[in-house]
Amino acid sequence: MRLARRFLAPLATVAALAASPVLADGPVCAPVTKVPLERHLRQLSLDLLGRPPTYEEYEAVRAKGEVTVEDVRALMEQEEFYTRIRAYHRALLWSNINSSINNNNNSRLYGNGSATEALSLRSNSSVPLRGGNGQGCDSYLAQDVCDARQDPHADPALPTTADACAKERYDERGVPKPVSWDYSTNYYTCTPLNATGCSATALGSDAKYLYFCDMRRATSGADAGKLKPYVCKPTSANFSSEVLDGAGRVVAFEYPNAPSNVSVKRLDRCTLNLSFKNGIKGSYTPQVGCIQREGYVTRPAPFWNAGGPDVRVCAIEAQTRTANPWTMEPCTTSRFNGDRSCGCGEGMARCESSDNNGSTHKARVAAINTEPELIAESVVRRDEPYFNLLTTRRSFVNGPLAALYRDPQQGLGVFNVARPKDPSVVPEVPYAETDSWKEYVRGPEHSGVLTTPSFLYRFPTQRARVNHFYAAFLCKSFAPPDNARQPAAEDACNRENNLAKRCGCSYCHATIEPTGAHWGRFAERSAQFLDPEHFPRYDPKCRDCALSGNTSCNNECGQYVMQAYDGDGAQSLGMLKTYLYRTADEEENIDGGPELLVERMLQTGDLERCTVRRVWQEFLGRPMSAEEQRMYLEPFAQEFARDGHRFKALIERVVMSDAYRRID
Prior knowledge:
The structure is a single chain. By secondary structure, the protein is an alpha+beta fold. The protein has helices spanning 2-17, 37-49, 55-64, 69-75, 79-93, 126-130, 162-169, 200-203, 359-381, 399-406, 453-458, 462-474, 506-516, 540-547, 567-571, 584-601, 606-620, 626-642, 647-655, 658-661; strands at residues 109-110, 120-121, 180-183, 188-192, 213-217, 227-234, 241-244, 250-254, 266-268, 275-276, 284-285, 290-293, 296-299, 311-314, 394-397, 438-441. Strands 4-6-5 form a three-stranded antiparallel beta sheet, with no helix packed on it. The chain has a three-stranded antiparallel beta sheet with strand order 7-8-9, with no helix packed on it. Helix 1 runs antiparallel to helix 17 (606-620). It starts with a helix and ends with a helix.
């Protein structure tokens, strides 16, 4: 039972103490009967190292006849102890953002880069790029070589010069154009022909549908990769009117007398020509009803396999632009995967691994989860004041995390983290080195584990961050008093938008709101730092947009008050959201950040008392009883403070106490 309890101790800590601690009120057992020597050592080894003692350790203690303070200190110098410390803080901080990051896989590459599977974006991103979900490029036709056609019966003759080839395959500004097409089965039903190719003879009585004869590649079986002819006609009977060319061949199907709410009224034959969205040149969109594929190019291995062999990459994804060369819309935001001109960037940095398990994303999440544990471990290992884990700027990166922090192109549309202004402060660690961690110093806005992406993503709002800080480090929860009373439903106080003042809500929010202001410079639902240089307290441009009714303001004012719901809101248009309803004191909290909160809490003694209670529960497997609180809580907290808040000294004091050595 003791062994099982030790392995479940981190979970027990969270379950019992994440909210208001439950205190055992029973008396201390008497008489005080201490456990035998061997059992005491076993308890210590399981609690501190997560394993039973070795034979040699048993023999050494028997020879001395007692477990001494020096023995405890020696145990706490072993690597297993620091593994135990990481596990303790993982449970304390809830360091798991697996469910906190929304990764829609729109940046994930598919294929293996081989001769038949060029790397490509095939999820929702392939709809604006190629015309259908799950569609890659043509892995059999090189983008830069004009030596073959998939549908020679319908497409123009191949270019005969290099210049003509380049003109066909790229637009005037180098954006890749299609090299082949297929009819989309979302619009068409395609029937195989008993022939080797598309021709009027093969079609027989359907010869007028020559342009709707589609050479499609088999995807499985013995014929995988081979071209087979199909005749494709609209699935919907509504497209009943055929449009013919001068030779009597069908070039389109129309929906006669289509209702006004029908968006697609005509299906034209597929070609190698792209359409323009809203008529804007360079804002490319595939033909309706067509899958239009570009070819492949060969590129060096992507960042997650740096140094590996060259790979085939779809020509769209291989691009490295920072902006659409026609519209100048940025390629350095999450919109890149829907813009034909953008691509995955240098080293494929904007895109994720083609591994079926999503290894790039999983490696980043695992590293973010581990970062706060290593910060806590470093504080304990160096015997620093324990609450440095809440204020230190020291942190650690491994390969995936270093790449994410150093390169702003990584994780676009998935991660929004506070990267340093100077990426060179982050150590260079090869991406593949997931177990190699290097130390560095973060910027002055950071405050220990409280500003790590793990904490900010796991607790996505200012209120959630305050709540967990109180629960984890002050052993307090927010709840209205027993005599709290709600006002009548018609009371105007219920319509107060400021929760710190709203009747009923103010019992908790009068503390939550001003305390949450300490995270006011960290965006909610992300790990972005809103630095004053780029996010001033007030932005007149955002106010002008708000007053004109343009509440999106070209997506530039998402962090600002753009709509008013009361008088305060009307006066705050164009103000950074975190300053809404703030007093002068609360604005000081925003400027001071979480570090200021920790400094203030250190003056109350609550941090020390809570840490004592948590360590007690961790190593005794239960909360302090009321009598134990009277006997141990305040003395241990005071000694913890006098010892310079050394965490190992507190653990030593707890495991050498009579209560720890008492028989259960």
